[in-house]
């Protein structure tokens, strides 16, 4: 049995090997993604890297910072604002501003707006028809659970970037850095890949308590998440009508434990 599930509207999709093995709710209804926008935009940045338009080591953001620093929340930028509060590579500071700058980097390199770039490089190839990013590449995304689950399946079994680059995206960048996962606390270390949170040994955490330390994904303050376990070829996507709050904090981990158990049965 999958659960717990809340009384407010949510939609949920679990995939194994790319196939849907469980769904709940109206999976075609679009909901705000908030920060689940970030890993989708990050994947489009990696496509730009793959195509030679930019490099992970290109300078970007504060002096001394690079595209890699911005993707890994290690540029020294605060949550908002462009005045750095630390030197690059010294602290894991979760930054919306860093992803706004990444949007500018991609727009300049590609010659098109970041939303158009993401559509051409991620949404259209994966068949994500409901998705839009009408504003900030850090938090403005809107999508259905069905479409977020297609992106989750891409994280689990990458097709849009090469195997080496996809593997690098799931490895902690600047791995010794401590940092905060919003809503869950400070962790030392706080592993983060290229736009992807890495579960590591964090506890408490929003993923299943027995999830692999290599689990990658992201959650958003809109009450959304996506995670992928590449060992199982499994992924899950969750969107809903209520912003992140007590229900999500108290129940996501238990819900994800039940999803992971089913994924293991089907893998």
In brief:
It is built from 7 helices and 10 strands. With 267 residues, the chain is α+β, with helices and mostly antiparallel strands. The protein is globular.
State the main characteristics:
single chain; alpha+beta; Beta-lactamase; two-stranded antiparallel ribbon; 10 strands
Briefly note the CATH topology name. Beta-lactamase
Distance between the termini: 17 Å
Provide the gyration radius in Å: 17 Å
Q: What is the β-strand count? A: 10
User: Could you tell me the strand content as a percent range?
Assistant: 15-25%
Structural class: alpha+beta
What sort of overall outline do the alpha carbons produce when their principal axes are compared?
A: globular
**Could you give the order of the helices and strands?**
EEEHHHHEHHEEEEEEH
Strand arrangement, largest sheet? 2-1-10-9-8-7
Percent of residues in helices comes to 25-40%
CATH superfamily: DD-peptidase/beta-lactamase superfamily
Low-confidence stretches: none
The figure for the number of domains is 1
Q: If classified by CATH, what would the architecture be?
A: 3-Layer(aba) Sandwich
Largest sheet: 6 strands, antiparallel
Mean pLDDT over the residues: 98
The CATH class: Alpha Beta
How many helix segments? 7
């Amino acid at each position: 049995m999958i659960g717990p599930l809340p009384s407010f509207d949510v939609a949920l999709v679990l995939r194994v090997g790319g196939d849907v093995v469980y769904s709940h709710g109206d999976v075609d209804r679009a909901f705000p993604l908030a920060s689940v926008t970030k890993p989708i935009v990050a994947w489009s940045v990696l496509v730009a890297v793959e195509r030679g338009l930019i490099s992970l080591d290109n300078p970007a953001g504060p002096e001394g910072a690079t595209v890699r620093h911005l993707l890994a929340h290690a540029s020294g930028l605060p949550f908002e604002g462009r005045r750095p509060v630390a030197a690059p590579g010294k602290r894991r500071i979760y930054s919306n501003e860093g992803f706004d700058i990444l949007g500018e980097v991609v727009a300049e390199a590609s010659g098109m707006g970041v939303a158009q770039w993401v559509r051409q490089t991620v949404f259209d190839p994966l068949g994500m028809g409901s998705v839009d990013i009408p504003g900030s590449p850090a938090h403005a995304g809107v999508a259905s659970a069905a479409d977020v689950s297609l992106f989750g399946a891409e994280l689990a079994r990458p097709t849009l970037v090469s195997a080496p680059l996809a593997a690098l995206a799931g490895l902690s960048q600047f791995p010794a850095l401590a940092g905060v996962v919003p809503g869950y606390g400070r962790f030392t270390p706080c592993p983060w890949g290229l736009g992807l949170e890495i579960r590591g040994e964090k506890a408490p955490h929003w993923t299943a308590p027995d999830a692999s330390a290599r689990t990658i994904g992201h959650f958003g303050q809109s009450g959304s998440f996506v995670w992928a376990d590449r060992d199982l070829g499994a992924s899950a996507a969750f969107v809903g009508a209520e912003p992140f709050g007590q229900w999500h904090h108290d129940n996501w981990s238990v819900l994800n434990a039940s999803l992971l158990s089913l994924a293991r049965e089907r893998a």
